[in-house]
Structure formats: C-alpha cells, structure tokens
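hey
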C-alpha cells in the first residue's frame, strides 16, 4: 500500500525491527517456484522422493528407520510443502492477473488509436473522392477538346458570308 500524501506518517515503535523485503524480487521468486511446481519434472521428483522415503522407512533395518509407519514425518513434510506452495501459486497468479490487466488496457488503447486512425483515413478518402469528382479528368478534357475541334472544323467548312 502506498502512503497517502494528505496524511502524516504514523510512527510505530516496536521492540524488534520489522524485516524488509523487496516485493518485486519476492514476486519473481514466487513465479519461478510456481512455474516449477506446475511441471512434470516436479511431479517426478516428488514421486521419487516419496517412494524413496517410504521404501527406506519400510524396508531398511529398524535402526536406520527415522519415520516408521504411518510415516507421520512424511505427512508433516508434505503438508508443510503444500502450505507454502498454495500462497506462492496464488501470488504468482495475482501478478499474472496484474500483467494481463495492463496488457488488456494497452491493447484497448492501441485499438482505440487504430479505430481513430481508420476513421480519419476514411474521412480523408471521402474528401478526396469529392474533390476528384469536381476536377476535370483526362477523358473529360479530351472529349471537350474534340468537341471544340469539331466546332472549328465545322466553321472552316461552312461558307463565309462576307
């Protein structure tokens, strides 16, 4: 949350200093973790880890076992992993939503500019068409010159009255 400029800063005194972290760096880390958690590689690694854990604690000599059946420590480890994975995935999704929102706004602004440009060009083309219709074309000039030549030829052929 950004501080408001119209209110004084509230000073809080604590016995222990508050830890400071960079939200952008933490967000990037959460995105990398979320991307890894959503891969087949993670599923293979996690499956291998669980199989190895259960195999070790079920098949190893009793003195080497550290988490006997019902594998309570394994359950604790998986619960801990899930409790951290869920918020990290949500944080990564929120960051992606923010990026999508910014991209949507930029696309919308770009589309509005393109629409305005298209409307402007359409008006310009319509104006040019109107202007061209008022300008004498080459064919029109040729027909007019031919008509004038024909009239001159007719005058030359007609007997003069003088």
């Amino acid at each position: 949350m950004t501080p408001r400029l119209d209110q004084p800063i509230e000073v809080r005194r604590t016995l222990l200093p508050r830890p400071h972290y960079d939200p952008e760096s933490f967000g990037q880390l959460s995105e990398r973790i979320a991307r890894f958690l959503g891969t087949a590689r993670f599923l293979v690694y996690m499956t291998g880890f669980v199989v190895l854990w259960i195999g070790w604690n079920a098949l190893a000599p009793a003195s080497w076992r550290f988490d006997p059946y019902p594998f309570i420590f394994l359950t604790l480890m998986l619960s801990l992993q899930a409790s951290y994975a869920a918020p990290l995935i949500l944080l990564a999704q929120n960051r992606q939503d923010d990026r999508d929102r910014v991209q949507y706004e930029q696309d919308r602004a770009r589309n509005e500019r393109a629409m305005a440009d298209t409307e402007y060009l359409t008006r310009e083309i319509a104006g040019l068409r109107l202007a061209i219709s008022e300008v004498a074309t080459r064919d029109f000039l040729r027909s007019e010159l031919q008509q004038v030549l024909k009239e001159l030829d007719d005058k030359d052929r007609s007997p003069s009255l003088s």
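Helices lie at 23-37, 40-59, 72-134, 138-157. The chain is about 75% helix and 0% strand.
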